[in-house]
Design brief:
two-stranded antiparallel sheet, Arp2/3 complex 21 kDa subunit ARPC3, about 5% strand, 2 strands, 8 helices, mainly alpha
Length: about 240
């Protein structure tokens, strides 16, 4: 067995992604044919489900593709996740165009996949990590990173001004975060056991249970979301 094959076959978990061994393991997934086939399947599912969403309330929907995004990133790690995100975004724009293609949007897709991978790949997956991953995406990706990209899109493509502080978008992400965190936790509890048996992941689903602290944190965030909606309606 070659050195790269030995690296790919290791089953150890990492406490954090901040180590050379972690990134060497992640990069070695490009040499693992089973992982690449799995990544291709996840890309196909993400593209197919890109326009599928679950209605929650008026103007509030959960995009189903983010479940597949998290699942795939958990299996193939951050290095493959970056490539998979870029490919799925490009294919989605080609096969299901919704407007003018604007390249910087690819960085939003990549950022979401990368965050999921950093929280889930080769580590013990807990309800807290799921919650934090969803918070980081809703805040840092959907709000912080998306704002300058949308500003550029409006300026360069549409020739219009873009409101840098989009209150409605902020409110939507605050409202959706607790719901998405709970649903993603439940989803991973279902898919991890069979995926573990197939040898694609090495962490079980035992810790995907909401502790008292998790419930309090989600309740506080849900209250913040409700308050944000009330404030938005009052000021509208």
């Amino acid at each position: 067995m070659s050195g790269s094959e030995k690296l790919s076959s290791r089953r150890e978990l990492y406490k954090t992604p901040f180590s050379r061994a972690y990134w060497a393991q992640a990069a070695s997934e490009f040499k693992n044919l089973r992982v690449l086939v799995f990544a291709a399947l996840m890309i196909a599912l993400r593209v197919a489900l890109k326009s599928v969403s679950i209605p929650v309330a008026a103007n509030l929907r959960i995009n189903v593709a983010f479940f597949i995004n998290a699942y795939g990133a958990m299996v193939f790690g951050p290095v493959v996740a970056i490539a998979a995100a870029a490919i799925s975004d490009t294919l989605g724009c080609i096969l299901f165009p919704t407007g003018v293609y604007f390249f910087p949007f690819i960085f939003i897709e990549i950022a979401g996949s990368l965050i999921f991978a950093l929280f889930f790949y080769r580590t013990e997956i807990t309800a807290l990590k799921v919650t934090l991953s969803r918070f980081c995406i809703d805040f840092f990706v959907n709000i912080v990173l998306n704002t300058p990209v949308m500003w550029l899109y409006y300026q360069m493509v549409l020739g219009k001004n873009y409101v840098l502080f989009d209150a409605l978008r902020v409110v939507k992400n605050l409202v959706m975060f607790p719901i998405e965190a709970v649903l993603l936790t439940l989803f991973l509890r279902v898919v991890i056991p069979p995926t573990q048996k197939l040898g694609y992941v090495h962490s079980g689903a035992e810790q995907l249970r909401f502790t008292k602290k998790n419930v309090i944190f989600l309740a506080v965030m849900a209250a913040v979301g409700v308050a944000a909606v009330a404030l938005y309606v009052a000021l509208k």
